[in-house]
Amino acid sequence: MPTHDDVDAFLTETLLTADPTLDAALRAQHEAGMPAIEVAPVNAKFLHLLTRVAGARRVLEIGTLGGYSTIWLARAVGAEGRVVTIEAEPANAAVAQANLERAGVADRVEILLGRGTEVLPTLDGGEPFDLVFIDADKESNTVYLDWAARLGRPGTVIVLDNVVRGGEVADAGTADSKVLGARRGIEMLGTDPRFDATALQTLDRKGWDGIALAIVVTPAAS
């Protein structure tokens, strides 16, 4: 009986073409000692297609890591688009910058160094973002969602990653700070009138997890 890893491999091999640039980005990330917590290839392609479907030209990413998902986003926005990505660790940002340059998309990406909670307020007042991808420390999910609404506009697409946590998100008694962050993010999306949202479970080479997908439906709070 095929396993979910077999299915993931089949989908990846069938739906994604070989891409030495992306392979090199992952190698550089892993050789630098970063954890293998980047989005799986099929999920990265989903993010890429979602960006294109939304017609997004300005994208905000919270959590760069080695720039793997950033490359997918940068390709999706096109040569006239812009990706702003936030990374807390200088070493990660350096690897990401090199990966973006190798991929030929560095001219459409700006890496902002610092914790998301500190960097996001500096973006207030600028042109709104069309899509926001949140994939950073889970404890700050509600803060990131609030800023996604503030820095977006009605119709802005928001993707919140890693919301299922191997099913632990359903445990109301959890003491795990990451799971609590995921739960609070989901609860915020369900109660905050600025958002209309849903969530999907995923099962791929990285195991059982999921994403929340939302759009901003009301103007950001003043």
From TrEMBL:
Keyword hit for Disulfide bond: no
Source organism superkingdom: Bacteria
One Pfam family hit: Methyltransf_3
Listed GO biological process terms: methylation
InterPro entries in UniProt: Cation-dep_OMT, SAM-dependent_MTases_sf, SAM_O-MeTrfase
EC number(s) per entry: 2.1.1.-
Keywords: Methyltransferase, S-adenosyl-L-methionine, Transferase
Any one Gene Ontology molecular-function term assigned to this protein's record: methyltransferase activity
Name the UniProt record assigns to this protein: O-methyltransferase
Species assigned in the record: Microbacterium phycohabitans
